[in-house]
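Database export, one record per block. Field names are fixed; values are copied verbatim from the stored entry.
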Amino acid sequence: MLWLSSLFLVTGAAICLIAAAGVLRLPDFFMRMHAATEAGVAGCGLVLIGVGFAYPSLDVWVKVAIGVGFLLVTTPIAGHLLARAGYVAGVPLWSGTSSDELAGTLKRGSFDGPFAQRMARPAGADAASTRFRVVVALSAGPGGEAVAAQAIALAKASDAELLALAIIDAKQIAKIGPVPIGGNHYAARLRASRLEEARRQLAASVERFEAAASHAGLSYALQLEEGDPAALLGAHLPQRGLLLIDGQGWFDHGAGDGVGDPLGHLVARGVFPLAAVASSPETIERIVFLHDGSPHSERRLAWFLANDPWPEAELVLHCEEGAHEAEIARASALTGRRGRGSVPAADKTQELLAAHVIVHGNQGHPGWINQARRAGGIARSAPIVIFG
């Protein structure tokens, strides 16, 4: 009996652990809900059966049977109703979803979230209900002062809420390569000194940001975090607003080896829309939106027009092959701003070089890496690059 009890308890606990990891790591609401349902039925059910074998008596087994029966009756139904409600409400599916079996069967609504904005509403319809928010990741890297300056300027111009995140990637800093036999003590000292250096550099950046924000007369919130930058940034993606990061550095603040392609790393982890700041121009006069004709680009264009962080700037829309220029022109007309459609391919490089902001409408799509390789580095040369 003891062995059977241990087997059921350990198996049930393992299923609950795997389900908990799924709730934290799976990419959309429906997958996370499925993981939670599995834990409720299989994991908890096996734990209850393990308890029954641990205390084998009639009254215990009756309670176990009632508990397992209650889980089997309620949890799948609750999961089904939650999934249906989420689908009808318009909770976004994972971008890698290959097919939607309920399309045309259930009416699909719209849902406000970091990765899906209300497509049916005119730009600015939610402005009264949600205040514009600027989130800036402070950095001691090469572009640290530029990203802080741009965040302060944008928050002041749009009367936005300002949140500063001081993040340290402690895990990246702790990577020091192979440690020889007997070198663990020195490796631990090196890790500690690197972490202390990162904290010192970031503290100096925080002080400079606070002084600049106070000088501009802005109120702000500040959060200090040590952990996975992608997870921390993803948790603070504004519903209406913009997330800005240093386009030239990582969150080890020069104390570690950094990440080869910081922007690609964050976008691949689902952190987008994301604005990478290389320098902070005094005025934003021209914005170039790269549209490839995909539904993802359509959604990102709607997001950009609804947020419209620089309403006085000229908006130039570059349509790749297959893009629906009529739809783009109609969407631009909703803002009442000056702008124009795509230009000849021969003039594209000149337009990109003259842009203060470049928006990659499809950068968050699984195929964005190949697209970026085809485009070359020119599309990242603007002072501010937004990956959508």
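Remark 1: The radius of gyration is 25 Å.
Remark 2: Residues 123 and 306 are 4 Å apart (CA to CA).
End of record.
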